[in-house]
């Protein structure tokens, strides 16, 4: 697909609902008592995979675009799926289901697309087996034998919301409490939603403690716009001359706002207005305008707060003066593709000065860039980051496969071109 160029980026927009919150609303809604009404749901391919899996386990889910109603059947209301649960391209669906299905009274099998079958599952299967779970294999397809579970105390070796959530979902079915100690704080949407639904959950610093309860109670869930999708337009607004974009109703949960902190530290003009809170999740309108950026260091506890935004932050760094160093981001290697290798390989095609390191990349900004024929590796975040980069590279650019934006942002290109 040829990427059309826009002259500048001006105007107001919204982005689709938060992917992480949308998945969790369906999953927790399915095992809560009563109807969970979700508005602002993300009807992207990953979240539709989650809906499909729960329908196969007997949950009645009415889905009409952004409005979804999940008719919860209680903690023990799921029924055995008649066929293998297919999670598509979604790491979140796959890993969270592992935890949820471990403690059921039935057996199940999970698999996904080629990318999912390459993504490591040991990070969830190992601690789950300590809880008594029986899961065969370290890669999909995974066979899960429903088992009696017991709580554990677990020090997480990687900062991962998926691992944490998987263990919390298993913990709902375990005998005794489950204590999870995070290495660094990862996104906490599960903790907030569990609390709102009546779970016995306590968060203190990096410790999360959960005790089983007889039932969760359905809630209304208002999903804010996904900051990971807004990130593409925040970067675009900052790097394009004569630009000013207001993105309305974006989730600004502190565990996700690393992109705002980094862009500000690079000198971006960013303003947050109309901050509001619903069930512990904050949202705001974000305005970004053309800025002169300078390079920065991104590492440590900041990484989990912007892990999915690193490809587009790397694109911003190409247009910043000086050097940007990204460290401690080895997790990028086990996403939909190896995002360190993919970013470095593709950005070099347009003349970027960028090098790959073991746990990140070094970008020297300010070069003149030219258009190129880019590969997306079937990775939605690569496709959208390259589309942003292509706007400022001289000449034409194309993407080999742009359809992957369906995963998290089906209308991405329409929204991009509308701004121009
Ligand atoms: O669901 P999936 O495929 O893992 O999606 C990604 C993404 O870029 O959309 C990662 F590839 O987001 C993850 C994120 O990186 C979603 C997520 C969650 O909802 O809990 C947590 C992060 O992953 P992790 O491994 O750090 O827990």
What does this structure look like?
- By secondary structure, the chain is α/β, with parallel strands linked by helices.
- The chain has helices at residues 19-31, 45-56, 91-102, 114-118, 122-130, 161-171, 189-196, 227-239, 258-265, 310-318, 339-348, 380-392, 412-419, and strands spanning 10-14, 33-39, 60-64, 67-73, 85-86, 108-111, 134-136, 142-145, 149-150, 153-155, 174-175, 178-181, 200-204, 207-211, 220-222, 244-251, 269-278, 281-289, 297-298, 323-326, 353-357, 360-364, 373-374, 398-399.
- Strands 1-16-18-17 form a four-stranded mixed beta sheet. A four-stranded mixed beta sheet has the order 3-4-2-15, covered by helices on one side.
- Helix 1 packs parallel to helix 2 (45-56), helix 1 (19-31) runs parallel beside helix 7 and helix 3 (91-102) packs parallel to helix 6.
- The longest helix is centred in the first third of the chain and has 13 residues, at 19-31.
- The protein is globular, with a radius of gyration of 21 Å.
- The two termini are 18 Å apart.
- The structure holds ligand SPQ.
- Residues 19-20, 46, 90-92, 160-162, 165, 186-187, 307-308, 331, 335-336, 381, 408 line the site of ligand SPQ.
- It is an enzyme of class 2 (transferase).
- Catalyzes the transfer of the enolpyruvyl moiety of phosphoenolpyruvate (PEP) to the 5-hydroxyl of shikimate-3-phosphate (S3P) to produce enolpyruvyl shikimate-3-phosphate and inorganic phosphate.
- Its EC number is 2.5.1.19.
- Phosphoenolpyruvate binds at residues 19, 91, 119, 162, 339, 381.
- 3-phosphoshikimate binds at residues 19-20, 24, 160, 162, 308, 335.
């Amino acid at each position: 697909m040829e990427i059309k160029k826009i002259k500048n980026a001006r105007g107001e927009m919204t982005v689709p609902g938060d992917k992480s919150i949308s998945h969790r609303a369906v999953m927790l809604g399915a095992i809560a008592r009563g109807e969970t009404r979700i508005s602002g749901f993300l009807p992207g391919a990953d979240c539709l995979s989650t809906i499909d899996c729960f329908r196969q386990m007997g949950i009645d889910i009415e889905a009409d675009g952004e409005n979804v109603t999940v008719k919860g059947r209680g903690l023990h209301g799921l029924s055995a799926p008649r066929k293998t649960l297919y999670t598509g391209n979604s790491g979140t669906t796959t890993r969270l289901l592992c935890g949820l299905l471990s403690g059921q009274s039935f057996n199940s099998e999970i698999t996904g697309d080629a990318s999912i079958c390459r993504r490591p599952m040991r990070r969830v299967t190992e601690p789950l087996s300590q809880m008594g779970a029986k899961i065969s294999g370290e890669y999909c397809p995974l066979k899960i034998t429903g088992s009696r579970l017991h709580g554990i105390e677990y020090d997480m070796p990687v900062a991962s919301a998926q691992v944490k959530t998987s263990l919390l979902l298993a913990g709902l079915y375990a005998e005794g409490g489950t204590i999870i100690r995070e290495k660094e704080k990862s996104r906490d949407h599960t903790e907030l939603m569990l609390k709102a639904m009546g779970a016995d959950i306590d968060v203190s610093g990096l410790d999360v403690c959960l005790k089983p309860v007889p039932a969760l109670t359905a809630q209304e869930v208002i999903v804010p716009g996904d900051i990971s999708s807004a990130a593409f337009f925040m970067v675009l607004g900052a790097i394009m001359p004569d630009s000013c974009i207001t993105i309305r109703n974006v989730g600004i949960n502190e565990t996700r706002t690393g992109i705002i902190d980094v862009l500000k530290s690079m000198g971006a003009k960013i303003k947050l207005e109309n901050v509001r809170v619903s069930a512990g999740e904050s949202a705001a309108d974000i305005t970004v305008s053309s800025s002169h950026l300078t390079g920065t260091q991104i590492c440590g506890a900041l990484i989990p707060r912007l892990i999915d935004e690193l490809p587009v932050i790397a694109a911003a760094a190409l247009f910043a003066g000086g050097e940007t160093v990204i460290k401690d981001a080895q997790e990028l290697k086990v996403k939909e593709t190896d995002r360190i290798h993919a970013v470095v390989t593709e950005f070099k095609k347009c003349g970027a000065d960028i090098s790959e390191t073991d746990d990140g990349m070094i970008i020297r900004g300010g070069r003149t860039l030219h258009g190129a024929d880019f590969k997306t590796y079937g990775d939605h975040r690569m496709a959208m980051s390259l589309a942003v980069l292509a706007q400022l590279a001289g000449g034409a650019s194309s993407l080999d496969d742009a359809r992957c934006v369906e995963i998290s942002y089906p209308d991405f290109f329409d929204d991009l071109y509308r701004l121009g």
